[in-house]
Structure formats: C-alpha cells, structure tokens
Design a protein that fits this description.
The complex is a heterodimer of chains A (449) and B (392). Chain A is α/β, with parallel strands linked by helices and 449 residues long. Chain A contains 11 helices and 20 strands. Among the domains of chain A are: 81 residues, Ubiquitin-like (UB roll); 67 residues, no CATH class. In chain A, helix 3 crosses helix 6 and helix 10 packs antiparallel against helix 11. The radius of gyration of chain A is 21 Å and the shape is globular. The two termini of chain A are 40 Å apart. Chain B is mostly helical. Chain B has 2 domains: 175 residues, no CATH class; 126 residues, no CATH class. Helices cover 63% and strands 1% of the residues of chain B. Chain B is built from 16 helices and 1 strand. The longest helix of chain B has 34 residues. Chain B is globular. At the A-B interface, strand 20, helix 10 and helix 11 of A face strand 1, helix 3 and helix 16 of B. Strand 20 of chain A pairs antiparallel with strand 1 of chain B, so a sheet runs across the interface.
Chain lengths: 449, 392
Amino acid sequence: MSDVIKIKKGLDIRLEGKAETVFGTVNLPELFAIKPEDFPGLVPKLAVKPGDKVKVGSALFYDKYRTDIKFVSPVSGEVTLVNRGERRRILEVVVKSDNQNEAEEFGAVDPKQVSKEEAIEKMKAAGMWPFLRQRPYNIIANAHDEPKGIFISAFDSAPLAPDYAFIVSGQEKEFQAGGHVLNKLTQGGVHIGVNQQMASKVFLSTQNVTTHTFSGPHPAGNVGIQIHHVSPINKGEVYWTIQPQEVISLGKLFLNGVYDASRVIALTGSELKNRNYVRTKIGACIVPYVANNVTEGHLRYISGNVLTGVNIGKDGYLGTYHSQLTVIPEGDKSNFMGWAAPGLDKFSVSRSFFSWLCGKKQYVLDANLNGGRRAIIVSGEYDKVLPMDIMPEQLIKGIITLDIDKMEQLGIYEVVEEDLALCEFVCTSKLEIQSILRKGLDVMIKEMS
Amino acid sequence: MKALRQYLDNIKPNFEKGGKFEKLHSTFDAFETLLFVSRKTSKSGVHIHDAIDSKRTMAVVVMALIPALLFGIWNTGYQHFLALGQPDADFWQMVGYGALKVLPIVVVAYVVGLGIEFMFAQFRGHEVAEGFLVSGMLIPLVMPADVPLWMVGVATAFSVVIAKEVFGGTGMNIWNPALIARAFLFFAYPSKMSGDLIWVSGMTKGEGIVDGYSGATALGNAAIGKTELLANGNAFDLWHSFLGVIPGSIGETSTLAILIGALVLLVTGIGSWKIMVSVFAGGYLMALGFNAIGANDLMSVDALHHLCLGGFAFGAVFMATDPVSGSRTERGKFIYGFLIGVLAMLIRVFNPAYPEGVMLAILLMNTFAPLIDHSVVQQHIKRRLKRVKVNA
C-alpha cells in the first residue's frame, strides 16, 4: 500500500446520534422525488407532466443547455406533482411508485470491453451521467473534458457520517465493474481515497485503480481535500469525482442493463430513536423513516450531514447525492445569558466554554446560530480547520469583493462548499461561508465560459 | 426567567418595523440579545454552529482584564499613600481610594463609548457590535489615575467616532481604538498625559509630597539618568516592576496581573500566542542589543527589566493581539509582533520627550499590518504558482 497521507488540521465534531451498523426493516415509501436544486447551476427542462407513467430510468427532466444530460426516475409509477418555487422554478418532480419496478432496458455490456464513447453514451442515456461531478465547481461533468483522473473518496468523515465499508460490503463485483467503466473515461486513471483505520476490502481489492490512504480528522474524507494532497487542481485542470454507491449503480447498469437507484442510507442524529441503516432509493420520501421514530419538539430534518446537508422538513425527499438522514433539534428558543454561562453542554473549538474540561463526551447540538452575525473579527480561525495550502479568510474576502484575479490566485478551483463547511461552523462572526463560496464559484463559471 | 422572556416578547412588537419605538430597534435588540442568546437558527450552509460568538469572545477578554483592573485599583491607592508618606495605610483604605479614582473613569468610558455605538448601530440599522466592551475596559486601564473625567469622555468619543465608526464599526477599524484614545490625549493635552506628576493620584494638586519622592515612573527616572532607582533593592527594581507596585497608568504596572490575563487569553485560544510571544521576543532581543551598546542610560537597563516596565507587557498581551487592527495572517503575526517589540524599545530608548514607546509602536504596526499581510499573501500566491510550473 502507498504511504499514509496524514491530515493534521480539521475537526471531528463529537455529535450524539451515530447509526448502528445494522439494517433496519422499514418499507419503502410511496413517493419519490428528484430535485433540480441538488445540481448547482442546472437549468432544468421538464420531460414529463403530472399524470405521465414512468419506468425506472425514464427521464423526468433534462439539462436545458446540455440536453443529453438526463435526470431519471428512481422507480416506476406515475408523476404526480411538479412543485415549483419562486418564479416558477422547479423544486421537485414527484413520482408515486407502483411497486412494480418496471425498468427501461439499456442493454448489458461487458465493462472491460466497452469503449469510451459507448460508455459515455450509455451513462447519459440511463441518467447516470449526473453522478460524475467535476472539480472545480462541483457541477456535473462535461463529457468533452479530458479529466486528470477520476477520484472516489471511499469514506465520509463528516459528523455522524455513514460507514461506506458497511454499505458496500458484498457488492465487490458491481463496484469492480463500475471501476472498469470509469477507467475507460480517463487517461489519468481512477483513484480511491481510503481511511487508514477502516478501509474496506471492497475498496482495497478493487483492480485497475490507485489507492491512497488517509488518516486524520474531518475533512480528511472530502474528495477535494484528498485531491489536494494527491495532485492539486490548477487552472484549466479538471478532476471528476463520484461516490462509492454511485459506482455500484454504474456497475449494475453495465452488468444488468438497467438503472438501479438503490441506496443504503444511515439514519442519524440525536433526535432519532432507532438509528441504523436502511435500504432505500434515490429521492425517497423520509416519512416512513421518521414516523414514530423521533423525539418530541421542533426538529430539523436534514438530507445529508449537519455541515453540508439540506433542510428538507419532516416530509421531504432525500437528495440525489446523499447517503444520510440527520435529525437534530431546531433550537429556536432563546437561552438566558447563554453567552455568559460556563457552558458545560456547549461544543466549541475555542476553550472559552468549560466543556473542554469534560473530556471526549458527545454533544447534542441544535441549529441555533448561537449568536449574531458580525463583521469578521477573530483571525486564524478558519486556517485551523482547512487542511489545504489555501488561505481561507483571504479567499472569502476575495469572493466578497468579487476580485476574480484574487479568487483564482488564492485557489478557488480547489475548493467547494463542503471543504469550507468547517470554517463556517467555527466562525465567531457566523458568516455564511458556503453560500459566499457558491456565489464565487458561480461567478467563476460565468467568467471562464 | 420565563417572566422576563415573556415581558420581552410582549414589548418586542413596539420596536419592530411600524412599532412605536421603531427607532430604538438596535437598542432593544442589543439588550435582548444580551439577556437571551438569540433564537435565530441557520438558514443556509451548516446546520450547527460552534457555541462561541462575538459576545463570548469579548466577555472573555474583559475577564482577562479584571486582574489588571483590580490590581490597578489597589495600586492607585497604594501609590497615593506612598506619596503622602503613609505606606502603612490600611489595605481597604488604599482600595477604597483607588476605586473612587478608577471606577468613575471606567463608567465614563463605557457610557460615552456605548452611547455612541448604540447611536451608530441605530442609524445603520445594524445590531450593536460588542467590540466596545473590550475597548471600554482598555481605555481606563491605559489612563493615568488622575486624568480628568471629561478628558476620558472626549478621548473615548474621539476614538469611537474617528478610529472606528468612520471605518464602518467593529471589525473594520485600522487602529486599536483604545490606543487612539490614549494617543489623542497624549497629543492634545500633553501636560495632562506626560511628565512626572501625573502618575500618582493626588500629586497634580500638589498634595503633600514627601521628600525625595518625584512621582516619576521608572522609565521617566531612567531617562533622566536616575538608573540607580532600578537597581536591586530599590523602588523600581525588577521584582517591584514585575509585581507592579510602581507608578504608571492604571492597568499597565503589574506584569504579574497582566500575565494572569495572558493565561486566560491563551488557554481559551482567544489571544494569539504568536503575537504575544513575538512582541516579547522582539522587545527582549532589541533590549539585549541596546545593552551591548549602552550609549545612554535607558540602553543599559536590563533587558528583562525593560519588559516589565511601562506599558510593554500590557501592550503585548492586550493591545497588539487585537485581531482587527493587527496582522491577520499566521506568518504575518510573527513579523508584526516582533516589529512591535523592536520599535517599542527603539522609541523608548531614543525618544527624549517620552520614554514610553509601546503605544506608538503598536499604532505604527497597526498601520503596517495590512502591508505585512499583503506580502504574506503574495508569497503564498507565488508558491502556488510555482506548483503549476513544476507540474507543467
């Protein structure tokens, strides 16, 4: 095995509510939805209208500017609803499952024999292309690019993150098939970043890929951090990324010829009673998983993890890229003199609360901001949680002032929201760093095209 | 607490848009958030936040200043009775006298400063920022005990308006507001802010001075050649200077009390150790260098002793570490701190009019901090560009 890359900076937020590594038995929901908002920068064009019958793998909508990029239905059934938001923006396309699992047939092909063009065409036809996302920008990859490589992070280090080793076990064949397909797409090879402590055999035994071993706190599992330490992205270079469960889906497409939207997700968070793993599908409605399974009070339901996930409400739908559901208290109550209390139950990186004396206990954190927004005051906070050769505060200031040269020089191509999420967590001034960064990325996309 | 919360909720509509007291919205908000950490939850991005906020940060700094304040209160009384020739006066007598002198200054600084802050927040429709909680404590601690209260008021107003609000408020200022207040008084009313008589309470009014007692600070004495006072066993020797039983500004004399504050800042991680260490290192090395030359009396003061005199320690721990006016890059902090130490000694030794250089050194380096940061960032960019060339 190659040398271990030690990530030193970062932060493991000790949250209560990890999922037990067992499978729960919950029936699949009736409703599923695909949300265009999961894909930054996408302008969706509907392919169906309410009432249409769809099969697994039928297109629901497609990219207005790259019409061959389709977003497909995870189940067979009927389109029931197209939810729209402000200015008629499409929020979600809802499909009611008929439990028949009738699938569009895309034809099986040997993953080792397939050509690059054929692989791309098949992925696009089956709605799998959106799984490939590119760095910089974290948007859906462009098939005309020649990527430096394809990178898969085989572990998630975010708070309460699912254990991919558990999720993928027993699916070696499919993962390997997906790996072969990915290998056709790039000259740069397929790279997998594994965790030193708990690398699954599935990943280590995969052939035709390069393995990189990482250790250290979050964000060591972020693919952007891993790329930075293996072969950083410079101007004009592109890496493609894909997640382990998506590789398995890809493998199934080539082995069986059908689109398989199966996902294993971890049910996590301090407010869930039964915390375990469940087999479900992309875009599943979360109602069956939280019904009679949450504590009292005002709660926040997050698709994804607490740092980068999306607040979907108690009857929302899982995001396309997410393998985790987190439920935490909303925390919209005021806290008497909270800033002055000793704060034994408060989690802070600074030692200004006495909880740092309490050892490694786990915390229940809510969605309260714990303070008001201010100008940037404290310095050096962000540096401590970003294990990259990047100056985060200066980069953020460059974005706020829309200084394109500075953004480029300070490394905006190397980061996406999830990489700076911890900076947002520790920020004393409560800046919305991820949304600032997204604005910066959007500006760069416009500027560079 | 519930009753209070309910009362606040009841009167809140009056302060919101369209309410009777809409104009006092920021004021209400400031008091409300002071009593109750707000119920605002995250809208975008991360769903959980670190427990720390700007109020907590500032409160910790104020706490770190308390030892220096308490010692300053006692020392003000002690120096007063020493000057009267009654060094055996009761402890509580000294504290009482000191409190009567010091606390009004604290009150004036807070009332004037916070009043202006609230007004500006109101005009801008912002929340009231907490930065002044610290400045309001720093200002009294860098004043001599006998400073007239109206001067404290004027200086505070000047520093809040000119040094802070014109730049956009807390977080935007270029110079440390507390030091601007002091510098303002120093240049506007030099007779009240320098010389031998002002450092011991009561002396300006000519209250009974015992023979041989000048009231001058250790540095003042050394500057005019009376270095024998700094020798071991005398009034200004290393031990006395470290403890702080010497004349000087209210909070600056006791290196010990300041180090306790430094400990609080370092343990909580709120003060930058990089800046503190490098200020002391810069000052110490420069003083050692001067020791080797020894061209005037101040040059030959022992290097360690130098660090305990005047406002050096206070400046290093509480002023230089201000994150807003100081250097913001990690590497820059070492350069910034080191140069403050060097310049403080340089000014101290070579300025004939005023043997205290820390204030000017920090203000000067505040001015240059953006330049230091700029060069650190440029180096960083250059290194990143090199990476591309190596790859190409």
